Amino acid sequence: MAAQVVGTKKPIGFHDSDHFPMQSAYKFPIAMAVLNAVDRSQLAPRGMVQLLKTFQEGRGLSRTSQALLFQLMTQTPTGPQRLKGLLPAGALVAHKTGTSSTKNGMTAATNDVGIISESGRPTLLIAVFVSDSPAETTVREGVIAKIASQLWRQQTQRR
Hints:
four-stranded antiparallel beta sheet; globular; alpha+beta; Beta-lactamase
């Protein structure tokens, strides 16, 4: 238990440094971190790529948490026609999709961000955000797939 009266400097606590299961209370610190990143524009495509770089380099998380998140990102069933859509079968894609609803024929967001790698090739960090689009899902996802495929081919040819 921990508490503090606003305006005072003295906290009140009992086992207040021990670790406990948080259940849904974990959502508050996550929301704070995400909104802080939004405030600093880290969640623009460039900022997202920087976040992916931090993750890929193993910074910011324990090794166990990083391995778990990487596993979840590679095994996700969502977005098979986005970043993964036109890549060769040997490419390993760790990614996270995001999709808004469609209102009045306009979809606010169809996104995919991830890490693309293949044995013996450089790793590609990529964030593709398709916003405010009247196009059908297959078209929006196809745009993401084409961008990922083109960049993957270009970076592979540079070797």
